[in-house]
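Here's what a typical entry looks like (Phosphatidylinositol 4-kinase type 2):
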Amino acid sequence: MPFFSSASILHVCFLVFSVLCLSLGYLSEVGASLVDEKLKLGIVPPTGVVELAAPTFYYDRIDRAKARTKERIQSRYPNIGRRFHRIGLPEKTGSFQLFVKGYQDAAHWLRTWVNQPETAPPPVTQREFQFLFEKLVALDYIIRNTDRGSDNWLIKYILADVIDRAPVHNNDIPCDPANAKPQVPGDEKLIDLVDSEMIPDAPLGSLHIDDPAPAEVEWADVSIPTVDVAAIDNGLAFPFKHPDEWRAYPFGWALLPQARIPFSDDIVDLLLPKLDDTKWVRELCEDLRRVFKNDKGFDKKIFEKQMSVMRGQIFNLREALMKKKSPYQLIQMPPQLMVEVKQKKKKSRRSRNAEYEEAPNYDSDASAVHSASGNVEPEQPGPSTSTAGPSTSSETGASSIGSKSWQETYEQKVQTKLPFFRWW
């Protein structure tokens, strides 16, 4: 049995807490819904920030005692109770997510499809599920979701439905709804079966007008199975740094067979025009800033680090979509930080000389892309070396005119430290 000292356990707990404590769970839930809406994925239920109070919520003893005291004072002394700012338990701020019906844990359906192949989706539904799975991969990778297992994303699978219909007979005679009597066709539309040459070999005695015609075989309509995906439990997303000392926060879907299939053209056409536009990325960061500002302890520096991690994830996903990689190859790409480049002020000649004489100082966790490309493991693809500007409308169809390229807007840094534990 491995032995861990108390100091090492506390160190590990501090690392996990330091990465996630500043990314409050309810704000991460709302931020994931915002990213889903901006990307037009449609897999995260609508989520917003609300303030609610309920006796089932957790309150300490002091808050409950204050609420009881105020209620007693108001009941006995109404004039004094009117001066209270609030009667009852204090409101708590959190996220409110729309409840989805008919969904089950992804582990249930994935296990059912393997154990009962007859219930597996047909090829048409499998392609639809693959497209939804790629949406989930894109969302989790961009927001750096650190808690995506098979039990916190949902699948709604509706099996094929057989609709029986009544048999159709050829001898049904239409009736007039006004007189409610059978409508007999005119003599000019009757065919004399005896004189007709349509049935020359049939005996005359065998033809009877009163004999019922044989009924047609009954038939049924079979509907195609449908599938849908919902991504919930996004509270452990948006870290402010890439984990580099304990675990890589592996994605649970990385072990599924769908993760080995390259990205489809549908997901490329949906996401690449947005991810390639730096103006769209900047607007996304500004929208997330308004969300995370709801926290009373909002820190601009910490938020900028969170956005640097997210922009690095967007840059890697953009490269994977352009090269038609698979989700499994995407998670093998080295983590990057995309720091926003600020306009430098003009410096005097003395300060420029001093800066020229000083040696470059890089961070311990990250280095410049030209110096770190050789330190990355050989099986991991290196960062992008393309320096082309933004693609035109004929290539992507969404890049705005005048927007700068990624290399002109952000400074690219690649993390060289590898986590102690990882799945791949």
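The CA atoms of residues 57 and 92 lie 8 Å apart.

More examples are in the samples folder.
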